[in-house]
Amino acid sequence: MQAFKDSRALQLIAALTVLLALVLAHLFLRGYYLEQQSARQNERVEVYRSSLFATLSRHDYLPGVLSKNDALFEKAFEQPEQASAVLESVRSASQADFIYIMAADGTTIASSNWDHEESFVGENYGFRPYFSRAVEQGSGDFFGIGATTRIAGYFVSARYPETGPVKAVTAVKVNSSTLDKNWKGSEAEVFVSDKNGIVILSSSPKWRYKSLRPITQQQREEIRKQRQFGNETLAPLGLKESGEGQLLVTIQNTQYLQTTADIGKMGWELHYLVPYSVVQSQLVSFWSKAIIIALMAIAALLLIRMINAHNALRDSQGESSKLRELNRSLEHEIIERKQVEAALRKAETDLRRTSKLTAMGQLSASITHELGQPLSAMRTYIASLGAHSSQETQDKTLGKLTSLVERMISITQQLRYFARSGDKEIRRVNLRDTIQGALNSTQPAIQAANVTLDIQQSDKPVNVLAGSVRMEQVLVNLIRNALDAMQENPPEKPRHLLIHLSTEQNQAVLTVEDSGPGISEEAQKMLYEPFYSTKPSGIGMGLGLAISTNIIAELEGSLSAENRPQGGARFIVRVPLLESD
Fold it and tell me: What predicted TM-score, i.e. pTM, was given to this entire model?
């Protein structure tokens, strides 16, 4: 039997080892393929970045060069059509899309498309940042959707003259199609975002003018004033980052491996995204090959085993008598095993019966422990009723006796806590009244034990939502435990019991402290377990703290214990205060 268990354990360990090795191998391969893909993407993103930067920079010089041509600007003001023709020839030679000259107020006076239907001549572009920056700083650049053509593009500008009062501004526009025309058909998704996180160039047209992050109201107002994106809503692209070194992002339910690079102009950033399925395909390919090789190896092993089995069967044909003897031995072993199993079942039945009897004994001790204090208190109160006691004293004593009888009834109901849910009426309870009720039951025991009682509480009610009897039972349990603990004190050591009631962060905090020996390390581990007690057999319930803990837990509170620095134990009950309090 033990050998069988050891064999199963070894098989389980072997299986777990193989599984762990496969997981580690998968993680290693995944990291390797991610690293390889990251290196490839870094190379590709640099190619795209340098190409785009070169395209953007190709025409940066042109507005400044034109602004040095005084004759051109004289024609622009006096003979605008001739100036426009010159601009068209320059545009054609430079491969720009548009070149135009604006007066100091932003009105276009000459343009390379002066003879087209969508001519810029007469249009005022003073609201564009590239105009205002050229006026203020000498030059400017900008990306936006054309106010006239509705075609997006990159604008670069320069003022005329370079010094002195501004008379005009020259602007060159390169359409966005020129910037990203070579991106389509790539195995990756490529796009550029501006300083506000808005996609301005993309290999996927549906991603254009989508935002990577929330746009502030101030940013939207600035975009509106500049008419940068026309009527585009700038809806979120839905990009979600998930990290992992090489940045993993999700866009529209598709995972990508993202590499980014700063283009070096206007806060633009280039994003190069390859579907994560590329790495997954590499992993699938590797594991497919590994599985095929493993299956071939298993098939070879099975073939070898079949050959060996065939040889063994051939050799065993002459040993039939030994096999019959082995069968008889096996049958005998089976019979013995069944007998052992029957004996084991009988032993288990006997053990359960013994456990039940033990539990009944513990429960009897618990009942004695739970009802002993109220009965002792009743005996003390009855003894105090003498023949010459006043009617008022008799009435008070009878009231206390009635309260104790009702408490004993409630306690017997509480002892059924773990068997079924009893009456759990919840109402407003003032913990000041709870303290007084608990002391009515325990005051005789406190006095008999020569214990100094200290109660610290505010004059204001501390109300919680609870069952009054159940809360009182919790406090009685804690007080009795404290009294029992202090019985171990030597005569010279004072016995001091402190009950403290306060509020803290919307919670009522009820603390019971004693000057006993404290809680041992072993007891702390089993403190709240049912039927666990540090007292001798038959003394102490072993249920008080377990029941108290569950009562407080039902009130969404907590019961904890700790040792005091100066010696003794401290039990802390925390219960939520009523919201109205």
Answer: 0.48
DSSP collapsed to 3 states, 538-575: CCCCCCHHHHHHHHHHHCCCEEEEEECCCCCEEEEEEE
In 232-280 the beta strands, taken as DSSP E runs, fall at 240-243, 247-251, 254-262, 269-275
Rounded CA-CA distance 479/497 in Å is 8
Distance separating alpha carbons of residues 274 and 513, to the nearest angstrom: 66
State the Cα–Cα distance between residues 246 and 39, nearest whole angstrom: 10
Interval 460-515: pLDDT, tens: 999 999 988 889 989 998 999 899 888 888 888 889 999 999 999 899 999 999 99
pLDDT in the model for residue 397: 80
157/96 Cα distance (integer angstroms):
13
Element (H or E) spanning 502, and its range?
A: strand 496-503
Sign of CA dihedral 236, 237, 240, 241: negative
Spatial CA neighbour of 515 closest among 490, 533, 539 = 490
> Is-contact 404 467, C-beta < 8 A?
no
Query: Distance between CA atoms of 399 and 89, rounded to whole angstroms?
Result: 114
If you write DSSP's letter for every residue of 173-214 in order, what string do you get? EEEHHHHHTTSTT-SSEEEEE-TTSBEEEESSGGGTT-BSSP
Angle, vertex CA 440, rays to CA 474 and CA 398, nearest 5: 130
Backbone CA torsion sign across 63, 65, 70, 74: negative
**What 3-state class would DSSP assign to 51?**
helix
**Domain 391-576 - what CATH class?**
alpha beta
Q: How far, in Å, CA of 101 to CA of 86, rounded?
A: 11
Residues 6+ apart with CB under 8 A from 411: 370, 371, 374, 473
Q: What is 407-450 written as a DSSP string? A: HHHHHHHHTTTTTS------EEEEHHHHHHHHHHHHHHHHHHTT
Q: Which residues contact 559 (CB under 8 A, 6 or more apart)?
A: 474, 528, 545, 548, 549, 552, 553, 571, 572, 573, 574
- Distance, in Å, from the CA atom of 250 to the CA atom of 518, rounded to the nearest integer, reads 57
Burial of 52 (0-12, 13-18, 19+ CB in 10 A): buried
The answer to whether residue 392 scores a pLDDT higher than 60 is yes
User: CA-CA distance, 487 to 523, in Å (whole number)?
Assistant: 17
Per-residue pLDDT tens for 218-244? 999 999 999 999 899 999 998 888 765
